[in-house]
Design brief:
There is one protein chain. Among the domains are: about 60 residues, no CATH class; about 150 residues, Histidine kinase-like ATPase, C-terminal domain (Heat Shock Protein 90, 2-Layer Sandwich). The chain is built from twelve helices and 15 strands. It is rod-shaped.
Length: about 500
């Protein structure tokens, strides 16, 4: 297993580990969310049960309150009849003491006795500060008249007196306590122990009685209120509470804390993922820069090491020319030495700013392919077709372009085991020059197509996996073109396309 495959395996293992961590965290968080949701519902149910018990207490108190009110009304009625009998001349002496006892026994209910013109004749059970002040007493009479009808007493067949009364102090305090109890009961909706959004709805009028932890602007808008209640109903079945013999419904939904907790792991993983992506990107850039420095150093050192033997070979070529050696042999040797010198020149330019010049692309391609054709195995059917106008010029660095073609062609020949057909076609488009290098080799598996040009990728036992990587850098970074696998079929062959931009 080469270094690239090892790196791929490690990436897959790390990705799998990350996915397992994510899944485990989401499952755990969902479990916690379910427990909190269950606890919230239990709290709301306990709270609703407490409301129900308190409502029962209020109903019982209200019933008792109504009975006391009836008793006071009876007491005033009896007092009025006693007063009427006392004013009557027909009462006998035996019942007179009883009548006086009835009148004296009313020590709680404030009563005013008036004539037909509403002049106050007498009053009982008022504070002394009021009873001794005619103005305040008259105000009491006016207030009472607004809330009740008087009890009529026949003094004579033609004369009437009127009795006005109000609740006793005890009864008024009881009414105040009753109202305060009801208000306290309602206010518990706002300060409920569950701390969840709650709305109390009257089942008859569908009006909002009160709410807690809910935006009032939503409740004041009919459309939004209906939508909110529908959403609450979808989340939880409303709880039923009976208040003052009327059925009410308690709508509630998840608390804001529970909602945030539900989405927290996803937000957390997004932030962590973003951080990891940034860290991985920076690490990759740093590693790539480091690799580039290594390759630049190796290239320049290679060029330096090749300089001495190339100079020596050039001297030997000149010596061969002087010794009447076969001219064709000397010519071929000289071509290879010049080629070797070009290779050294290529290595020396790695890492430097590219020196691009306008050059006729058809001529450059023909020269490079003619050289390669003579050095490819005779078992390879090497053909090329340059369908490019001879006047078309492109910004090129010809030695580097030769290097790209040499790398791609050598890889194609190796893929065919030096037996097969190799066809190079160059076509001219509106804005580009396309160079297709098609072989009949083994092909490339689909899962490796995206990594063919990655540093370290190779299928050779002794390969470094740098040739195609350098070719990609020369084409895309120096010439601003593109190089990619156009097509590849297992056991049928591969087509590599190089795209150069026209000026």
């Amino acid at each position: 297993m080469n270094i690239y495959q090892q790196k791929l395996v490690w990436k897959l293992l790390l990705l799998l580990a990350a996915l397992l961590i994510v899944v485990a965290s989401v499952v755990y968080t969902n479990s916690v969310v379910k427990k909190i949701a269950h606890d919230e519902r239990n709290k709301v149910q306990i709270w609703a049960q407490a409301l129900q018990k308190k409502a029962n207490l209020i109903q019982y108190t209200q019933s008792l309150f109504e009975k006391l009110a009836q008793e006071e009304q009876k007491k005033v009625g009896l007092w009025a009849k006693a007063t009427e009998h006392l004013a009557s001349s027909s009462i006998d002496a035996g019942n007179l003491g009883f009548v006086f006892d009835v009148i004296r026994n009313n020590q709680t209910v404030p009563v005013l006795l008036t004539d037909e013109k509403l002049n106050i004749i007498s009053s009982i059970n008022f504070d002394s500060s009021v009873a001794n002040n005619p103005i305040l007493l008259q105000r009491e009479l006016n207030t009472i008249r607004q809330n009740m009808s008087p009890i009529v007493i026949k003094v004579t067949p033609t004369r009437r007196n009127y009795i006005y009364y109000k609740d006793s102090r005890l009864f008024a305090e009881l009414k105040y306590t009753m109202n305060d109890l009801i208000q306290s009961f309602i206010s518990e909706i706002v300060s409920n122990s569950a701390s969840v959004p709650v709305v109390l709805i009257d089942s008859v009028s569908q009006a909002v009685v009160t709410s807690g932890n809910v935006d009032t602007t939503v409740l004041n808008n009919t459309t939004k209120r209906i939508a909110l209640l529908a959403s609450m109903r979808e989340q939880h079945t409303p709880l039923t509470v009976s208040i003052n013999a009327a059925t009410h419904y308690v709508y509630y939904e998840e608390s804001q804390l529970l909602k945030e907790l539900r989405y927290f792991p996803y937000i957390q993983f997004f932030i962590i993922g973003l951080f990891l992506f940034a860290a991985y990107y920076l690490f990759s850039v740093s590693r790539k820069a480091e690799q580039n420095q290594v390759w630049v150093g190796m290239s320049k050192e290679t060029a330096h090491q090749l300089g001495t033997p190339i100079s020596s070979l050039m001297a030997w070529v000149e010596l061969l020319k002087l010794q009447d050696t076969d001219a064709q042999t000397v010519y071929e040797i000289e071509k290879d030495v010049l080629r070797l010198q070009a290779v050294a020149d290529r290595f020396s330019k790695v890492g430097s700013s590219p020196d691009l010049k306008l050059a006729p692309v058809a001529k450059a391609l023909t020269h490079s392919l003619e050289y390669m054709k003579k050095r490819v195995s005779t078992k390879v059917d090497f053909t090329y077709n340059i369908a490019v106008d001879t006047d078309t010029q492109v910004m090129l660095n010809i030695p580097l372009l030769d290097w790209v073609l040499e790398n791609v062609i050598n890889n194609a020949v190796d893929a065919m085991d030096a037996v097969g057909t190799l066809c190079i076609t160059a076509t001219e488009q509106l804005t580009t020059i396309c160079i297709d290098i098609e072989d009949t080799g083994k092909g490339i598996p689909a899962n490796k197509l995206s990594t063919v040009f990655a540093p370290g990728f190779t299928t050779k036992k002794r390969g470094w996996g740098l040739g195609l990587s350098l070719a990609k850098r020369i084409v895309e970074e120096y010439h601003k073109g593109k190089i990619f696998i156009k097509d590849s079929v297992i056991d049928k062959g591969t087509t590599v396309r190089i795209v150069l931009n026209k000026n």
